[in-house]
Design goal:
The protein is an all-alpha fold. It has helices spanning 23-41, 50-72, 80-96, 101-107, 109-122, 134-159, 163-186, 211-231, 235-255. Helix 1 packs antiparallel against helix 2 (50-72), helix 1 packs across helix 6 (134-159) and helix 8 packs antiparallel against helix 9.
Length: 257
């Protein structure tokens, strides 16, 4: 006779486990999230000592991304925007490289004159550059390297089909910055993180320092949060993202920017 067999359970999509991502990709995603959140929380690079820290974090993120791309056999993203960023960084670098003073007098006469006066004041040999402030220009070079590193990392994460990861990373960074600004207001703080006291007056202190910049960041982050709230597949995730967007709208109003 026929043997009775128990019916095979029907697997629902929610019961199926998603394949585990390679460790290299998870490391690239994690480093990108940490570096993106740290950038606005560490004064947005407004303080000199934070620039090399953020650049190092961005560089580490780019390295982990390159490693993940090599492991996955995927080329790193490239295009006109990346080329433009690299050209801008190289041009900034060229302005800080010492050149013969005769050439500097022809290219940047004001800079050559300023360098000659400073050298005469301290009785040293002049080191002419195109820029009038080599120290500040070197700082901008680090910022340019950080921007290139962030762009490469975010582009790679998007290229492997993880655009939502990039959006959530941006939304999380903006949410953390908004929460930090509100926390400073609730505590009636007069300095940011107890380290830096801004010279400008503002109704709201935030780690992004300049209230106009803070308001601009929130203007970029709020639509991302509302977009995640409306497009999220999980209902439990919609309310937190919507609340984060409302928090950012409150920060925008308080900055009066």
């Amino acid at each position: 006779g026929l043997e009775a067999t128990s019916p095979r359970p029907v697997m629902r999509p929610s019961d199926e486990r998603r394949p585990r991502r390679p460790r290299s990709e998870r490391l690239a995603h994690g480093s990108l999230a940490i570096a993106t959140a740290a950038a606005p929380l560490l004064f947005g690079g407004a303080l000199g000592w934070t620039v090399p820290v953020l650049t190092a974090m961005a560089g580490l993120t780019a390295l982990t991304t390159a490693w993940a791309g090599w492991r996955a056999g995927r080329p790193l993203p490239h295009g006109i925007l990346l080329i433009s960023l690299v050209v801008a960084a190289l041009w900034t670098t060229l302005q800080a490289i010492p050149i013969p003073c005769g050439l500097a007098e022809w290219i940047a006469p004001e800079s050559a004159e300023h360098t000659a006066r400073t050298a005469a004041l301290f009785s040293v040999e002049p080191r002419c550059t195109v820029t009038e402030d080599p120290g500040r220009t070197r700082e901008e070079i680090l910022k340019g390297l950080a921007l290139v590193s962030f762009f490469v990392s975010a582009s790679f994460v998007s290229a492997i089909g993880k655009r939502d990861t990039v959006l959530r990373t941006v939304a999380f960074a903006c949410t953390a910055t908004a929460a930090a600004a509100m926390g400073h207001m609730v505590l009636a703080a007069h300095s940011i993180w107890g380290v830096y006291t801004p010279t400008h007056g503002s109704a709201l202190l935030g780690p992004f320092v300049n209230p106009n910049h803070l308001g601009g960041l929130m203007t970029l982050g709020a639509p991302v949060c509302f977009g995640l709230a409306t497009s999220s597949r999980h209902r439990d995730h919609r309310t937190p993202w919507a609340l984060a967007g409302l928090l950012m709208l409150g920060v925008i109003a308080l900055t009066r920017s």
